[in-house]
Amino acid sequence: MLEKTFYKTLLSRSFKNVPVKVVFWDHSTATYGDGDPEITITFNEKIPVADVTRNASLALGEAFMDKKIELSGPANVIEILINAAYQSAESFMRDSKLRRFMPKQNHSKKSSMSDVQSHYDVGNDFYALWLDKTMTYSCAYFEEGNQDDLEQAQIAKVHHILQKLHPQPGKTLLDIGCGWGTLMLTAAREYGLKVTGVTLSEEQFKLVQKKIDDEGLSDVAEVHLTDYRELGDRQWDYITSVGMFEHVGAENLGLYFKDVANYLVDDGVALIHGITRQQGGAFNAWVNKYIFPGGYIPGLTEIIGHIEDAGLQIDDVEMLRRHYQRTLELWNQNFQAQTAKVTEMMGERFVRMWELYLQACAASFESGNIDVIQYLITKGASGKNLPMTRDYMSQPPLTEVSGL
């Protein structure tokens, strides 16, 4: 009886804006929100209240993965429910009495490699099923609004980042956390830069090296399977880092920006693109356990403080929250179209885990719980070697390397 009362209170507070039908473990039902529900939440078994009050996201996330909770409704039913919960000030997503955090994390070089490999080394074949042809696993940039061409939007993101640097042909670029190499190799081919990429993922490293070899770019491009902290006293004219600082941990964030400063030449320019909370830093227990071990989303003022402490200056800040929401929604559509193949490869529990991850993240961006921000920063006086206005950011590359 107490469990039923607890869940009725939790659900009534969470879904005020979305009509929802709930089927409890004893087959009794209840409806919350105004209107006729198109969504049904079914509890196949009772989830211990102690687990939910200890950590709601972890307990309910695992219950969904294990089919203790099932959902029916539109294809994006998870996104709808989680966004509704974020919008309600009384929901478990925002009630401080129900929010708990994991113990202090470890971000040693050894643990960082293990964390990255646990996520990115699932296999290139898995990511190729639902990413676009560029194999870009970060926020796209939709120049024409809500269009559906993900590949076009990812290519636009790469150019948006590189153009902000105002790169000069023949200069050098370091890409920290280079992924599958689209950005760094575009910089080499179309902007005439000599590029260096670093990754901790063996799968990414192998594919980037193959691209360098296949495209004959070995004289202008190199990739290293190493921790970004192991690059010695080398310096570069430009640095890019996309979706990277979320992995370094709160305790290493200041050191990360100091490394960026150390790797830049005087008056060098960096574009740092990462998920940021405007409300302050936090991390999620379920995401940490199943998706991004060691992940931490820093706050906006926290990031700016570390940039200042590293002796860097800010040239430009751009929020791309809606772009990441759209990116995740398209990834989810692609993923759902491939669930049969992924189930065969990884099993049903893995599929449910990734459906929850993609849609929950989309909802988190939609609600404004998290944002993704590009920080254009300079080692030296802000904008010293940049044009006076932002107009240059929309200009095409200064050069294109012929024959590549």
Features:
404 residues, alpha/beta, seven-stranded mixed β-sheet, four-stranded mixed β-sheet, 15 helices, 17% strand, elongated
Shape: elongated
SS-based class: alpha/beta
Query: Biggest sheet: strands, sense, closure?
Result: 7 strands, mixed
Helix count, per DSSP? 15
Which percent range describes the beta-strand content?
Answer: 15-25%
Low-confidence stretches: 96-121
Task: Give a structural overview.
There is one protein chain. The chain contains 15 helices and 11 strands. The longest helix has 20 residues, at 348-367. Helix content is 42%, strand content 17%. Helix 3 (56-65) crosses helix 15, helix 4 (77-87) crosses helix 15 and helix 10 (253-263) crosses helix 12. It has 404 residues and is α/β, with parallel strands linked by helices. It has a 7-stranded mixed sheet with strand order 7-6-5-8-9-11-10, with helices on both faces. The chain has helices at 2-14, 49-54, 56-65, 77-87, 109-120, 124-130, 150-165, 182-191, 202-214, 253-263, 285-290, 300-309, 321-337, 339-346, 348-367; strands at 20-23, 29-32, 39-43, 69-72, 172-176, 194-199, 221-225, 236-242, 264-276, 313-319, 371-378.
SSE inventory with pairings:
Elements: H1 2-14, E1 20-23, E2 29-32, E3 39-43, H2 49-54, H3 56-65, E4 69-72, H4 77-87, H5 109-120, H6 124-130, H7 150-165, E5 172-176, H8 182-191, E6 194-199, H9 202-214, E7 221-225, E8 236-242, H10 253-263, E9 264-276, H11 285-290, H12 300-309, E10 313-319, H13 321-337, H14 339-346, H15 348-367, E11 371-378
Parallel strand pairs: 1-3, 5-6, 5-8, 6-7, 8-9
Antiparallel strand pairs: 1-2, 3-4, 9-11, 10-11
Helix pairs in contact: 3-15, 4-15, 7-8, 10-12, 13-15, 14-15
